[in-house]
Automatic annotation (TrEMBL):
Coiled coil keyword on record: yes
Family annotation (InterPro entries): LprI-like_N, TPR_rpt
Key word Coiled coil present: yes
Record keywords, A-Z: Coiled coil, TPR repeat
Superkingdom to which the source organism belongs: Bacteria
Annotated TPR repeat ranges: 22-55
Species annotation: Domibacillus enclensis
Name of the molecule in the record: Lysozyme inhibitor LprI-like N-terminal domain-containing protein
Coiled coil: 86-117, 157-184
Domain spans labelled Lysozyme inhibitor LprI-like N-terminal: 229-315
Length: 321
């Protein structure tokens, strides 16, 4: 009998302790909620719910605060569609605490604002790409600068940073491509002008010695491009230099073909074929020092141009003096 009384007393004591823990947790939760300490409030109401799993007040408060936590997490991640979703679920709850309602409404407003900002950023990036497609690179750059300077769009810009960086890269790459094209056109124009001058001067009775010296002086202008330009520009310059010397070599060779005795020209033709093999093998050997680099093709054409220039002088000195 005493044992039964002791067990009943123990149960009553434990129940009393449990009720005290519940009451204390609920009290702390409400105080934390009033202080807008939502994490502490949620922990307190969840503790109260552990003590009284069927308590509707603890359950309701814990659930509302969990929804607020999900809303906050989504906002920190910049997932504004999820913020809107979780805030809406919270606002639909019955008996929603005023502090939580205020928070949910603020997050809803923030989600709407950030969604509009994201749309604005996307639209302006599309405008930037449109300008790039039109070839208006400076306008595209100005639009992108203005977009990045807009303080109201910083969060949306951060969320679309990859797209912003890609747009900037597209602008810079396109501007460089345009500059390279203009440089190449300038080189070609200079080459065409030089060729036209050579033809005009030749018609005035210039000797081949004069043409060699003139072309040597004009092609020396390409040295500046090779020394200061990009690899692509250097390659273009050396290709043009080689083409000009090769054209003059072919002209000299054609003149010798018509003027030399047949037996002497047959010897020249054999020697010329051997020289062509020597030129290309020498160019390949020189270029091999830069194998696998962007300069390999530049060195190949540079060597071809140099040896062709020397060959022009050799033929003129030997057969035309």
């Amino acid at each position: 009998m005493k044992k039964m009384l002791w067990s009943a007393a123990a149960l009553f004591f434990l129940a009393g302790c449990s009720n005290e823990l519940y009451e204390e947790a609920m009290k702390k939760g409400k105080l934390a909620l009033a202080d807008a300490d939502f994490d502490k409030a949620r922990s307190s109401f969840e503790l109260a719910l552990e003590e009284e799993p069927d308590d509707p007040d603890a359950s309701r408060m814990a659930e509302q605060l969990r929804l607020l936590e999900k809303t906050e997490t989504a906002a920190e991640e910049g997932n504004w569609s999820e913020v809107s979703k979780q805030a809406s679920l919270l606002l639909e709850k019955d008996n929603l605490q005023s502090q939580l309602k205020e928070q949910a409404e603020e997050y809803t407003a923030a989600a709407e604002a950030e969604t509009k900002a994201a749309q604005k950023v996307a639209e302006q990036l599309a405008g930037v790409q449109s300008k790039v497609s039109e070839g208006s690179y400076e306008e595209a750059s100005v639009l992108l600068d203005e977009l990045e300077a807009d303080e109201s769009l910083q969060a949306a810009l951060l969320a679309q940073q990859e797209e912003v960086d890609a747009a900037r890269s597209d602008i810079e790459a396109s501007k460089k491509e345009q500059q390279d094209k203009e440089q190449a056109e300038a080189v070609q124009a200079a080459a065409d002008a030089a060729a036209a001058t050579a033809v005009a001067e030749a018609s005035k009775g210039w000797t081949y010695e004069d043409q060699l010296d003139d072309l040597s002086g004009r092609t020396a202008d390409f040295d500046y491009i090779v020394e200061t330009g990009t690899t692509a520009q250097a390659l273009e310059a050396e290709q043009t230099r080689y083409k000009q010397w090769d054209n003059l070599l072919n002209e000299i060779y054609g003149t010798l073909k018509s003027e030399l005795p047949n037996d002497e020209f047959v010897q020249l033709r054999a020697a010329q074929r051997e020289w062509i093999t020597y030129r290309d093998e020498s160019a390949a050997e020189a270029a091999s020092s830069y194998a696998g680099t962007d300069w390999e093709d530049v060195q190949y054409k540079m060597t071809q141009a140099y040896l062709t220039e020397i060959r022009c002088y050799e033929l003129v000195d030997r057969y035309m003096d």
